[in-house]
Amino acid sequence: MAKKKLYNTIDSRELKKRIDQSEEARMTLSFYKYFNIDAPADYRDGLYAEWNEVGVLGRTYVATEGVNAQISIPKDKEQVFAGSLTKFGLEGIRLNYAIEDDGKSFYKLVIKVRPKIVADGLDDREINFEKRGTHLNAAEFNQLTDKDETIVVDMRNHYESEVGHFEGAILPDVETFRDSLPIVADMLSDHKKQPIVMYCTGGIRCEKASAYMRQQGFENVFQLDGGIIEYRRQVDNQGLDNKFHGKNFVFDERLGERISDEVIARCHQCGKSADAHTNCANDACHLLFIQCESCAEKYKQCCSTKCAEFNQLPDEEQRELRKTLEFNGTRFSKGRYKAFHRSEQGLELK
Fold first, then answer.
1. Active-site residue, selected from the candidate residues 200, 280, 292, 307
2. Which fold has domain 124-245?
């Protein structure tokens, strides 16, 4: 019997085309669980074989410390999928279902073994992760953050908080979670006795961040249980005030889901009100930035005139020019508002 392939062998462009044209009803969800996995590679292979049969798509990280998954599943396989969770020690976990979802969030299954399920830069031997912050549901979060002495901290990156965040939150200007931890601790070093409420997309980053903050001597650390996704669900179900403004950035093809009707960001090219993230259509650049519909048409879904013109060249000429040309995405991984300036070549990043 031939051994099952435990990885994707089909071209990504073809897979994306298939999912875009598919009429299969799918649902997007995410979850995480911290628990000990003795043999992550074996666990990964077993999970891939199981989920590939079920029709799961998406991205999952496996490490000795647990599992972190952002996936989509066929709606008619929901019960089968639930059974697969039990097989892999994931029974009883909370599944964060997407708020705005057409089922086309992912187009292939990728499961990778990583040193950690979230890159935090921490030495786990020095921090007791059992001493995490106190979990808050949506109602408790609203009540505590109404108090003047409470400090609210967004533990996400600048390109996430730019399109949406809780009112009054501190928004660290960082590109990675590992960067944010020491920066936040330093920013709040004079407030170690005040209530500090941390939040992120689904809760996984705050599990580490709140324990880190307690390790640094902060006495009253709290975290939003289930993150922004679960907060929105509870707000809707319980008729609570929604204290989140704008859109929640997500790490899949959607790149965002609306939490409130407000648009709080601006197009990185013209400054018009906009909060739609996109990746530059020039694959040699692929910069993540915010673009309005007018600029998307004008620059052909690219971040600059340079990229738009390059993208029209024959493939062979593009391959040759890539050896010497530098694009915005070569220098920056994520765009920032007001980082663009006008030049004779078009809109470029400073």
1. 200
2. Oxidized Rhodanese; domain 1 (3.40.250)
